[in-house]
Amino acid sequence: MCGRKHRAVHESSAVEGEMTMLPDLKQHNRSRNLFSVDNARMMSLAETVGTFVPTAEFWKLLTPANQIILGARGSGKTALVKMLSHPYLRRLPGAEGVIGGAELVGIYVPMSTTWASSMKNKPWRNDTERDVYFNWRLNMAACNAALDTLASCVECYVEEPQQAIAERKLMQRLSKIWSPECDPPCTSIEQMREYLQDLEMLRQMQLAETQTTGRIPPPSEVRGARV
User: Looking at residue 27, what is its pLDDT?
Assistant: First the structure.
């Protein structure tokens, strides 16, 4: 429904392009000094879009091909990959053709050194247990990011009277694919978000119990493990 070509936009801690974030006092919240923000992860959608200045190199990224964005810390990598995702790109002047034709539907999956470092403080017995947990966290992050993009696509491509119906059908189908044990299936994006949060909390509780049992439960023992 959301387009013909889909790309998951991943952020790498070692990459990014030109400096693209410039202050625009007419568009961002005047009560917040964005010069004090050193990373676009801390900026809202409105702040990121309102202060983003697209360059010629940025428009070259809007192609159905694999891209690697190189740059030092603070050079604008996060801003670039955020702007490639559908919820951000659809609000950028000049991107109407790409969005209107659904030529690219980007999904921003946030990564960070903090997220990766959380892998180190768990009681892994071997690399397999660590990899299982990493896959779990990555899948959860990708699912939540996909929900953001689906919400944007429904709002962008479906007529308003039909949006609730389209969202309901989408979530019912996703419930069967992501977590067949979800009964009754989710009927809204917000319900699916809450369900994923419950799964994450359950997983964290199981990991905490590992401190006493000495065993990490495999995915088959986690409710909704297919997510």
Answer: 45
